[in-house]
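From the shared-data thread, chain only:
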Amino acid sequence: MSAPAVRGPFQWSVVVPVVAAVVLAATWLHHEHWAVLVAIGAALVGAVLAAVHHAEVVAHKVGEPFGSLILAVAVTVIEVGLIVMLMTSGGEGTSTYARDTVFAAVMITLNGIVGISLLVGALKHHLVSFNPSGTGSALTTVVALASLTMVLPSFTTSGQGLEFSGSQLAFAAVASLVLYVGFVLTQTVRHRDFFVPVSSDEYGLMTGLLDADGDDHADPPSRRETLLSLALLVVSLVAVVGLAKLLSPTIEDAVKAVGAPYAVVGVVIALLVLAPESIAAVRNASRDRVQVSLNLGYGSAMASIGLTVPTIAVASIWLDGPLELGLETTQLVLLCITVVVSVLTVAQGRAKSQQGLVHLVLLGAFLFLSVVP
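Structure, as tokens:
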């Protein structure tokens, strides 16, 4: 059953985003006291849950794949703003912040969101099914984007170290936008049927498509309710990213206290920002709608690269200091393993719990090696 639509002004789903936004505004300048940090953390959790609720309301109205696309793009647009804001603030790790955050988002989506979705869905329904044609094209686009923007800088010679030269960065930005826009048109216009949930037989083989709105039993929300949920979704996501930024100094202090690399800060913030998509993916997987979960996972990875790199390329015109997008050796190895495992997972069009477990172990390896490189 899809999330119920917003019915009144005192529903928790209306109150929580507003309260989270108020907490964000009230604590923006002063948030050092432990009690204030606790309030920020509580508001962050509430904003995440509210974002998931409103994303499901909107998705129920517009159907798939538009629903998952809206959530992925909304989160990523605000995430890009957070990256630019933190880069302009200066400080340690500025040159690699964009790379570390985007790479963390890619690993969390390809292994975390995909892995937990496959595991939850398969444990509950024995086998999960999805359309390999649509999911395969999404994975192909993610691999191309990651390779062009984060692998190539590690091997080019025009720029210094792990940096692109100016012309190379411009090319990577344009190529990223072309790939992303092309995929969105494929997903929503030319081949939309490849990205809607599928029905399957007892062996997990695809037999057809499920209803477009994703729920045979509940009527879709009205236009007014949908617009309200869309507005509250934006408010919730702004609150999630803003509150995550307020918590970032505390996260940085904790990272320094344990002697972990600065890149861990990007990992933690990526985990917080991607929480709404992760929860939405798990809830869809539990309803045997893994196609929606994969749309969210691969769509988020794609948007994270395809929207961030062009934005950073433009921002680099006035940002001081180097911009390192190239991956380190350990990151390259993890990405290569993830790509191989993902291809084998997607090619079958169905998955058991083991595939989900493999992806989650890879996520665990990424998180562990981020702390202990």
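DSSP finds twelve helices and four strands in the chain.
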